[in-house]
Write a structure and sequence with these properties.
- The complex is a heterodimer of chains A (about 450) and B (about 475).
- With about 450 residues, chain A is of the alpha+beta class.
- Chain A is about 35% helix and about 20% strand.
- Chain A is built from 17 helices and 19 strands.
- Chain A has helices at about 1-15, 25-30, 45-60, 110-120, 135-145, 150-155, 155-160, 190, 225-235, 250-265, 285-305, 315-325, 325-330, 350-355, 390-405, 420, 435-445, and strands spanning about 20, 40, 65, 85, 95, 100-105, 125, 160-165, 170-175, 200-210, 210, 215-225, 245-250, 275-285, 310, 335-345, 365-370, 375-385, 410-415.
- Chain A has an eight-stranded antiparallel β-sheet with strand order 15-12-14-13-17-18-16-19, sandwiched between helices.
- In chain A, strand 17 and strand 18 form a beta hairpin.
- Chain B is built from 15 helices and 22 strands.
- Chain B has helices spanning about 5-15, 20-25, 50-60, 115-120, 140-145, 150-155, 190-195, 225-240, 250-260, 280-300, 310-320, 325, 345-360, 385-405, 430-445; strands at about 20, 35, 40-45, 65-70, 85-90, 95-100, 105, 125, 160-170, 175-180, 200-210, 210, 215-225, 245-250, 270-280, 300-305, 335, 340, 365-370, 375, 375-380, 475.
- Chain B has a seven-stranded antiparallel β-sheet with strand order 16-13-15-14-19-21-17, with helices on both faces. In chain B, strands 6-7-11-9-10 form a five-stranded antiparallel β-sheet.
- In chain B, strand 6 (about 95-100) and strand 7 form a beta hairpin.
- In chain B, helix 8 packs across helix 10, helix 8 (about 225-240) packs antiparallel against helix 13 and helix 13 runs antiparallel to helix 14.
- Chain B starts with a helix and ends with a strand.
- Classes of the chains: A alpha+beta (about 450), B alpha+beta (about 475).
- At the A-B interface, strand 9, helix 8, strand 11, helix 11 and helix 17 of A face strand 10, helix 7, helix 8, helix 10 and helix 15 of B.
């Protein structure tokens, strides 16, 4: 504790009183898998961020960057954890030119606050990660969290056009720019997406923005088998109709989602509580477009012999959208022990999904599955039993799954697991074939290994 | 050049795949830019292992290596600024795999851009990046330069359409990055390597993403009597939240030149035209087309025409895509610039270009991607007049500086290469260069691959010197 107090005092000299936190209660808010930092710096400017990183470098301290901390658990526990660098104090909208549809915003600004600024000009940013209300712009980029809207708008790498950040040497750097088309210099900002804070402290991000759609609508349909649900999914994706998102989920997920929506005071999913495979397809546009998609979807759902097919009213549509967006957050809290896998694989077949879940719905384990339209799936292993036998069953099943998934064409990583489980398996799976190149990138950005050592792929 | 290296290259690849006679090398000292740089030997690999072995040999003899596709680049990216070995990928030109269900194609770097679309269009798919040179430029070059095209506006640059790469690092190591299955675990290495202009590795295989053709494409031609009306129209289209698939501007003077050559049906007596394309499902494309036409008219368009059928559409695009070729009829050489400005600054930027040109006594044409603020002023000159040539270069630099001063950037799609490396400090600080250099050195520590590109090498930038050219053969034409 003594060293912690000293560290806090030295940080205060750098960033000023009020920008350093160090009480026991405050430190506990920054815990990662049981690891507690020695001090927390919450700088007010990019220059201060650079000073803190330089200080950490000269003192050989380890820095873990964070925003709202809603996804700070992703990754391995830190090898060491001296200093939490909280970037949520950087909240300026540096440039917003609605006529250009471009935006430059500080990393610490919350997405929900940014959304208000953009909505006033009829625009939005299609970054829709879980924990949307709390998430900061920088944390969202660093976490690399996926979102279903990607089907229509692409992922962050398609609309992030520039960045400013502090590298491991404590230098304030930038890449890209504020124009929508630019190939000047290396696209360094793309490396920051999903880097989990291991390369740099992100201070500012530039995006292209998008006009808010005139009208939004959604269809929720259920099917008696996974096969018919996946067939319907493929059929509508191949139809050429414009969808914002298309998500398929299994009966267990549907049941959980129903409860989530109920808590949000909506009965959107009520008819689907019967254990069925479901599809949610969101679409938007002007009245003519929405009308046409509605008509064609209805006809296709009828032909596909959907058990139910219902177009949602605005309120139900909003709550279902939110419920699906937040799946990561409520799944990780669904039972005492949850292992939540993110799977990247383009062409999931019903047979593969069944194979994945084979033998899982067996006490004490259950599983819930959500697949978006762009090749990313969430698979949650839920375990009510927190005793030794429950833990053993969860670990065994998870190990098998990781092996099987990473041995196939796609890849799987663990977004959430209880701390005891993280020490027993690598959340990132085996290092990919290009891992040695990643090590070179890490060494170039952060030669002293200041940022979050040990948290990322292959021990980076 | 060490004759032993040439001998070993011939043993490795066969004599038919190695060129070293001066008259052969002459063909490879140019690209589409005004730069020049002659290789000492040109080789044609047929397989990834050939590329790896060539790099190992080059290392042994300590000579630099540069990769080249069709040589249509506009920033000198594929020129041998440091002499040495030029690897031309023309014979690695096979489409290896088509996965239509998952909309992926795996191709070798020498495949011509348009040939990817031709191979998949029967399934209603296409490869979205469409540089004007798409009938001849290769996908390997597109990946190196992160090429764009008219349809970048909605579809994005090459980087948005690459899923996986096979690379050969400067030491000859072969490695795959990215994943054709979607997201990778770890850093987005494809994001770094695409657009690295051949300075980090050579690309030997590419998995590209294919895009579904839109249900309806509407191509509009709006004719204006004042350039300012046309540029205001573009700004208003953007501000109203419409993202056309393409939005091109051609000024009146270049229209006449194109019309003489292509007979695309462009008016000869206008100040500017906009070639605007909207696409999507029928209902969306039709309403957008109507809105675009309305915006054109409210900005005093003299006429708004819609292409009646594919033939008319193709003719309009033929006029646009062959515009730079048409310019060749007017002067011995032309210099196509590539700068970017925030779209709302378009009216101001065009005025400034006109002023700069008038002051220097150049007639500057403008044929460009107006929708994303990507300017292509074109300066006509005679390279045999050294004074005029120097003035053309100085004028180009002034225009690029103007773009940066408006909040823009040095290059939107052509790359930095050896054309703009000395201008890089306009945008980047010492700290930025330091990080870029560390990334460069992490993969290409001896600058053996494509030296003298991207990074400034002139005096005054001593600390950021990377890849000093081995010899001084690389000069402007």
């Amino acid at each position: 504790m003594n060293s912690s107090v000293k560290l806090a005092a030295r940080l205060e000299n750098l960033v000023g009183r009020g920008h350093v936190l160090g009480s026991e209660v405050e430190l506990r808010d920054y815990v990662i898998d049981g690891c507690i930092p020695a001090a927390i710096a919450r700088p007010a400017s990019a220059e201060q961020v650079a000073e803190v990183v330089r200080f950490a470098g000269s003192e050989k301290l380890v820095v873990v960057c964070c925003g709202s901390r809603s996804k700070l658990e992703i990754g391995m526990p830190p090898r060491r954890y001296d200093l939490a660098l909280d970037l949520s104090g950087l909240v300026e909208v540096a440039h917003y030119d609605p006529a250009d549809l471009t935006l430059s915003v500080d990393a610490g600004l919350r997405l929900s606050e940014l959304a208000t600024v953009l909505a006033a000009k009829g625009q939005f940013l299609p970054l829709m990660p879980p924990c949307f209300g709390a998430s900061t712009v920088g944390g969202t980029i660093a976490s690399g969290m996926d979102f279903a809207l990607r089907l229509q708008y692409g992922s962050a790498r398609d609309f992030l056009i520039g960045a400013e950040f502090v590298d491991g040497k404590g230098q304030l750097c930038k890449s890209g720019g504020r124009v929508v088309k630019n190939v000047t210099g290396y696209d360094i900002h793309k490396l920051l997406i999903g880097s989990q804070g291991t390369l740099a402290a992100i201070t500012r991000l530039n995006f292209r923005t998008f006009p808010l759609p005139e009208l939004s609508a959604g269809l929720l349909a259920s099917f008696r088998s996974s096969e018919s649900a996946f067939t319907f999914r493929k059929e509508i994706l191949d139809s050429g109709l414009p969808f914002a998102s298309v998500e398929v989920f299994d009966p267990e997920f549907a049941t959980l989602l129903t409860n989530v929506c109920k808590r949000m005071d909506s009965n959107a999913l009520e008819p689907h509580a019967s254990r069925q495979w479901s599809i949610y397809a969101a679409f938007n546009g002007n009245e003519a477009v929405v009308g046409r998609v509605h008509r064609e979807l209805q006809a296709r759902a009828n032909r596909a012999a959907a058990a139910t097919a219902e177009f949602l009213d605005q309120r139900a549509n909003n709550s279902l959208n939110a419920g699906l967006r937040e799946a990561f957050d409520w799944l990780r809290r669904a039972t005492p022990n949850v292992a939540l896998l993110r799977i990247s694989q383009l062409g999931f077949t019903p047979a593969q999904v069944e194979d994945l879940q084979k033998g899982i719905p067996q006490s004490p384990l259950r599983s819930a599955f959500l697949f978006n339209g762009c090749g990313t799936a969430l698979l949650a292993l839920l375990c009510e039993d927190d005793g030794a036998s429950g833990r053993e069953a969860l670990e065994q099943r998870l190990t098998e799954l990781l092996q099987r998934l990473n041995g196939g064409p796609g890849s799987a990583t663990l977004l959430h697991a209880p701390s005891w489980l993280k020490t027993r398996c690598n959340v990132w799976g085996a290092p990919p074939p290009d891992f040695r190149l990643m090590q070179r990138v890490k060494a170039a950005f952060d030669p002293e290994n200041t940022f979050s050592p040990g948290r990322f792929v292959g021990g980076i | 050049m060490d004759l032993a290296l040439i001998r070993e290259l011939k043993t490795l690849l066969g004599p038919a795949n190695v060129l070293s006679q001066p008259e052969d090398l002459l063909l490879y000292e140019f690209d589409g830019s005004v730069e020049k740089g002659r290789p000492e030997v040109v080789v044609f690999p047929h397989a990834t292992t050939d590329v790896s072995n060539i790099l190992k040999l080059a290392n042994k003899f300590q000579v630099p290596v540069v990769g080249r596709g069709a040589g249509t680049g506009l920033s000198g990216g594929a020129l041998a600024r440091g002499g040495g070995v030029m690897i031309v990928f023309a014979r690695m030109n096979r489409i290896l795999e088509l996965d239509l269900e998952n909309r992926r194609a795996v191709v070798q770097p020498g495949v011509v851009n348009l040939d990817i679309t031709r191979a998949v269009e029967h399934a209603g798919l296409y490869f979205a990046p469409d540089p004007s040179s798409q009938k001849s430029c290769t996908i390997g070059g597109n990946v190196a330069e992160n090429s764009g095209g008219p349809h970048t506006l909605a579809a994005g640059l090459t980087t948005n359409h690459v899923a996986e790469l096979e690379l050969v690092l400067p030491d000859g190591e072969i490695v795959r990055i990215g994943s054709r299955q979607g997201d990778t675990t770890g850093y987005d290495l494809c994001g770094l390597f695409v657009g690295s202009e051949g300075t980090l590795a050579l690309v030997t295989e590419i998995a590209v993403k294919l895009t579904r053709k839109a249900e309806l494409v509407k191509t509009l031609l709006a004719v204006f009597d004042a350039v300012s009306d046309a540029s205001r129209t573009v700004a208003e289209i953007t501000a109203r939240g419409i993202t056309p698939a393409a939005c091109e501007m051609l000024d009146g003077w270049t229209l006449g030149v194109i019309e003489d050559y292509i007979h695309a049906g462009f008016p000869r007596d206008s100040a500017a035209v906009l070639l605007i394309e909207v696409e999507g499902v029928r209902e969306a494309a039709e309403s957008q087309a109507a809105l675009v036409a309305e915006i054109c008219q409210s900005n005093h368009a003299r006429e708004v025409r819609t292409a009646k059928d594919d033939r008319e559409r193709d003719l309009l695009w033929k006029g646009r895509k062959n515009a730079f070729g048409a310019m060749g009829r007017l002067a011995p050489s032309n210099y196509v610039l590539d700068g970017v400005i925030p779209r709302s600054k378009l009216p101001e930027a065009l005025e400034r270009i006109h002023e700069i040109g008038t002051r220097a006594g150049f007639r500057i044409g403008n044929i460009f991607h107006a929708g994303d603020g990507n300017l292509h002023p074109i300066i006509l000159f005679d390279p045999r007049d050294p004074q005029r040539f120097a003035q053309a270069i100085a004028t180009a630099e002034e225009i690029i500086r103007m773009c940066v001063s408006l909040g823009g950037s040095l290059t939107g799609e052509h790359g930095v290469g050896m054309e703009k490396n000395e201008l890089m400090p306009l945008l980047f600080s010492d700290a930025d260069f330091d990080l870029m250099r560390r990334l460069h050195d992490a993969f290409n520590p001896n600058s053996s691959l494509n030296p003298g590109k991207i990074f400034p090498i002139s005096k005054g930038c001593g600390e950021i010197r990377v890849g000093k050219p081995r010899q001084t053969s690389g000069t402007r034409a």
